[in-house]
Amino acid sequence: MQNINHRRSLLVIAGALAAVTVLVSTSVAGATGASVVRATGDLITYANPYTNGTPNPLDGAQASVHAVATASGKTIVTLHVSGLPANRSFGSHVHVRACEDNKAGGHYRNVPADPASPENEIWLDFTTNAAGQGEAHATVDWVIRSGDAKAVVIHDHTTDSAGVAGPKLGCLNVDL
Questions:
Q1: Does 111 share its domain with 160?
Q2: What is the pLDDT of residues 51-96, one digit of tens each?
């Protein structure tokens, strides 16, 4: 009986320490004036993205997004992906709608009337390694307007100077 009570006590203490650790992390982020958003999961893949029956190369892929809006007015976004084709380059951007809403709509732009550019949008292009994993980072000198960005979309190829990256292949919902 003492062994069971001892184990319960240890579990209660471990649970309390975990709660305190989360509380401290949250307080530190709040105290600095920064806000943090995270999303992780299977990518929502779009059927027939090439409109010719070619299979979507992202089926079964996963992603995670970590975004920080700093107290100094910057946004830092990190994308990690896995389960993609090896040694291949992709374009990726923050989009205005959720994945299921018109395939996430268009790219989020800091100044909606201004043209596409890495200064006005968040571009997260990446190349996968031999294991099909990749990551991208972007830092912009502005903060995303609350409620105006809902997803990160992975496109078929890297972004050209006009902001075009080909068909939308996959998407992760993240309320930035």
A1: yes
A2: 999 999 999 999 999 999 999 999 999 999 999 999 999 999 999 9
Cα–Cα distances in Å, from 8 out to 14, 17, 78?
10, 14, 39
Q: Is the CB of residue 139 less than 8 Å from the CB of residue 28?
A: no
Task: List the structure tokens of 117.
Answer: 């550019």
> For residue 144, what pLDDT is reported?
98
pTM, two decimal places: 0.82
Residues 16 and 90 in one domain: no
| Coil, strand or helix at 15 | helix
Residues 24 and 39 in one domain: no
**Pair 138, 83 in one domain:** yes
Same domain, 21 and 95: no
Alpha-carbon distance of 44 to 140, in angstroms, equals 26
pLDDT interval class at 151 (50, 70, 90) = very high
Strands laid side by side in the 151-155 sheet: 44-45, 168-173, 151-155, 89-95, 126-127
- How many residues are listed for the chain in this entry? 176
Which structural domain range is residue 21 located in?
Answer: 1-31
d(C-alpha 43, C-alpha 142), whole Å:
27
